[in-house]
Amino acid sequence: MKQLATRTFLLLVGLMLATYAVLAPTLKIVGARTTGTITEVRRQHGERNEATPNRYAYGVGYHFVLPDGRKIHGTATVVGNAHSAGIPKGPTRVRYLAAWPRINMLERETEFNIGHLIIGGVGVLMMGLALKPGKRKKAA
Questions:
Q1: Are 77 and 57 in contact (CB under 8 A)?
Q2: Which residues, at least 6 apart from 131, have a Cβ–Cβ distance to it below 8 Å?
Q3: What is the pLDDT of residue 140?
Q4: What is the pTM of this model?
Q5: What's the distance, CA 68 to chain centroid?
């Protein structure tokens, strides 16, 4: 039973990582583009534990209005220095799925990068481990 729970967990987390890795480049290609408004930029936690000093994570809140008048809110996390997130409040470009606008990202986050390959690779690896046949005990 414990093995089934572990395999299920690996499968679900792997599926989520692989889906996220594909989401940003997909939005760049098939996502609808609109202008949104960044309403909030807040520094989160303390300094990041990286080789480059003075790097901080910033939470960014934004919204955009659909053609039918509905307002959709979104969030993003960007990395900036101790003084600024490098992203100002005000107008910005947003990509979203027209069929499901809750799936949206800042356009600058939809650019393909090596991080998407790494996250996708880890997700596929986790799914592979979850689906790998287990060793059976031999009957004595």
A1: yes
A2: 7, 11
A3: 56
A4: 0.76
A5: 26
